[in-house]
Amino acid sequence: MTLKHTLYFTILAIGMFVVSCKENGNQTTAKPAPETTAKSSDKIVFIDIDTLLAKYQLYIDKKTELEGQSKTAEKALAGKIEAFQKRLARFQQEVGEIQQKANTIAPVELKKMEEKYAQQQQNLAREEEALMKQRDNAALDLEKQLQVTQKDLQDKIDEFLAKIADEKGFDFVMMKGSTGSVMYGRPSLDITNETVNRLNEEYQKSKSPEKN
Predict the structure, then answer these.
(1) Domain coordinates of the chain in residue numbers?
(2) Is residue 88 a contact partner of residue 81, using CB atoms and an 8 Å limit?
(3) Residue 173: beta bridge partners?
(4) Closest Cα partner for 31 from 40, 23, 21, 39?
(5) How far apart are CA 44 and CA 176, in angstroms?
(6) CA–CA separation, 198 vs 50, rounded Å?
(7) Read out DSSP for 66-127?
(8) For the chain, what percent of residues have pLDDT higher than 90?
């Protein structure tokens, strides 16, 4: 399984305006608006989401945990399916042997055997249905856990980006990577390493809170 989320940001277009008026019948020259103190490029940064997730310890731990649960569930179910298949094979073998000897068995005994195997067939069918339901439920449970994990990761990253943007005066934090919209960004605008380092620091603190 892969654990990635999509962050949505917009780009603000910064424009200029021209004021024109006439005074005493003469046209005044157009004047640009005063420049802002900070350039737009100084306030737009980006993160590489693929690099961030590859280094974010919370993501790594959650991914490992879910993969372990998935393998455990698959192993347990595989054992049950294997045991069921063996019982089914024995049942089919017994039925085949009875069919071959049907002419040598008394009608009363043959009828009892038919009823017995009919009941066994129903039991095997119910068991197979239960196994398939268990498999589907296990898959749904893992899917729900994955969704919760993705939401938790997205919330933590969003909260952190909002905090760092407030601290450093960033207007926008764009996303680069396989699910991002940034094609290119100057390395000086890349805050991925700083972001993941601080996220990992906060995660470690949450795992081992200081004792008073």
Answers:
(1) 22-207
(2) no
(3) 45
(4) 21
(5) 13
(6) 17
(7) HHHHHHHHHHHHHHHHHHHHHHHHHHHHHHHHHHHTGGGS-HHHHHHHHHHHHHHHHHHHHH
(8) 5
Give the pTM.
0.57
> Interhelix angle for 192-207 vs 107-168, to 10°?
120
**Could you report the per-residue pLDDT of 26-41, keeping only the tens digit for each?**
444 444 433 333 344 4
Distance CA 174, CA 6 (A): 11
Both tokens of 49, joined, read: 């989401």
Q: Beta partners for 97?
A: none
Assess contact for 175 and 132: CB atoms under 8 A: no
Which SS3 state, helix, strand or coil, does residue 37 take?
A: coil
Tens digits of per-residue pLDDT, 2-18?
333 332 232 222 222 22
- Residue 32 has a pLDDT of 42
